[in-house]
Amino acid sequence: MLAEARKHMWRMPPVVVAMAVAAIAVSACGEQPGALDARLYSAELRPLNDSGVEGRARFAREGEHLTVTIAADGLERNQIHGQSLHGFFEEGRRAECPAGDEAQLRNFEGAGVYGPPVRPLEPFPTVGSAGRLDYRLTFTDDPDRLDPLENRTLVLRGVSDEGKYRPDLPVACGRLTPGREGGREVSGR
């Protein structure tokens, strides 16, 4: 029977044979760790202090590894911009981003809303002449220190105030929300 199957296999188009071999190889290997095991989160970055900064961040947690990708526009050009995860350590307390009149604040004023810094995302990048931040960082950290990520916020910093650059002033904030991959929830594993 195997000899008969081989004879017919050579009559099939090469693409069909390749797809069949790939399907058999994948099913034989079982589930492999990797991107499908990641818990995904995203954050819509909204301006603070009338900065005009907006963007999006994506987070992928795989065990002790967290990959952060940030894309933001409207940042002060040719300056270093800090960013960090913020939140509270009390169980169940969710960090939020200030809105409306609350979005006019100094560094210490935001801590009551988005929480103290939990993890700086270093090294801090220098934004180029277009005012755009494209940042990617993968780091290892104790999940117990950062989780639950859905209770955290991302805060970007750095803006000129009264003619002087202030790297400590918040310019954007986004609350982390569980993401989806392939239509299924991946954050609650």
Written account of the structure:
- The chain has 189 residues and is of the alpha+beta class.
- It folds into two domains: 1-30; 35-179, Immunoglobulin-like.
- It is built from four helices and eleven strands.
- It has helices at 2-9, 14-29, 107-114, 143-146, and strands at 39-47, 54-62, 65-73, 83-87, 117-120, 132-140, 152-161, 164-175, 177-178, 180-181, 184-185.
- Strands 1, 2, 3, 4, 5, 6, 7, 8 and 9 form a nine-stranded antiparallel sheet that branches. The protein has a two-stranded antiparallel sheet with strand order 10-11.
- The model is unreliable at 5-10, 12-35 and 181-189 (pLDDT under 50).
Largest sheet: 9 strands, antiparallel
Domain count: the total is: 2
CATH architecture name of the largest domain? Sandwich
CATH class label of the largest domain: Mainly Beta
- What class do helices, strands and sheet pairing give? alpha+beta
